[in-house]
Inverse folding.
């Protein structure tokens, strides 16, 4: 028997215990979940999500998920501040939603809506390491966020506005977010048509290059970009490149990459 078998068995037991707990959580949902969604939909301003210890880490994730899916939210408060936050919400008539195993606890008894977690112990076997309870809390937070998304008809376009950074934001970027426009566009001097080669697909100048689709030295200009007097960059004479001019296209890319907004070549 492999020496890592006991560790794999333990991992499987933990994952199965948490999966079973999620199934029990799904079956336990009732009208309180609908009340929680209504409470969040009708909230004014930001939703403040808080928790103590491991629940605080879960609360940060739930707050981030809500914020990126159309519900303004942020994490706030630590253990010493939680009691003050509850008292403040009661004094100022701010709706309070709680997720807890004990609806009659000091937290649950103060909440307007309580989402009760099934008391299934923890996956560690000793009941002292938050595992099953944090998984259920995280799943319940995700369920709230997705329910709010569906109610608001939240789309990928909305997600791009709320979450412009990171890998997900990059996947949803539009061309207009990446390309230059207006004065920032790299432009080539007009009136340079006489430097383009003549070939079967680009009849411009009336003269033929030595090898069609392969521009010669005469078809390039050496231009000095203002502010970069220490180097001379090779630029194509015109943006309409020959179909087969691979080398010219490479140099065109270099020109566009190095061209600063508002720069002019020396041939103007």
């Amino acid at each position: 028997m492999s020496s890592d078998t006991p560790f794999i068995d333990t991992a499987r037991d933990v994952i199965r215990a948490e999966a079973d707990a999620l199934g029990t959580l799904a079956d336990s949902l009732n009208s309180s979940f609908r009340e929680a969604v209504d409470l969040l939909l009708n909230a004014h301003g930001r939703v403040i999500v808080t928790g103590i210890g491991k629940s605080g880490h879960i609360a940060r994730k739930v707050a981030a998920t809500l914020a990126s899916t159309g519900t303004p939210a942020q994490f706030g408060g630590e253990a010493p501040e939680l009691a003050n936050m509850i008292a403040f919400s009661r004094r100022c008539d701010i709706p309070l939603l709680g997720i807890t195993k004990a609806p009659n606890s000091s937290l649950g008894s103060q909440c307007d809506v309580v989402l009760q977690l099934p008391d299934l112990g923890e996956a560690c076997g000793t009941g002292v390491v938050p595992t099953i309870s944090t998984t259920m809390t995280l799943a319940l937070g995700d369920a709230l966020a997705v329910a709010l998304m569906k109610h608001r008809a939240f789309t990928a376009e909305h997600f791009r506005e709320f979450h412009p950074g990171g890998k997900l934001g990059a996947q949803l970027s539009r061309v207009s977010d990446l390309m230059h426009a207006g004065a920032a566009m790299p432009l080539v001097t007009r009136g340079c048509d006489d430097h383009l080669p003549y070939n079967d697909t680009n009849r411009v100048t009336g003269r033929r290059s030595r090898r069609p689709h392969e521009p010669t030295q005469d078809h390039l200009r050496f231009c000095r970009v203002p502010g970069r007097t220490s180097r001379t960059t090779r630029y194509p004479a015109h943006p309409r490149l020959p179909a087969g001019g691979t080398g010219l296209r490479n140099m065109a890319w270099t020109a566009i990459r190095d061209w600063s907004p508002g720069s002019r070549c020396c041939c103007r």
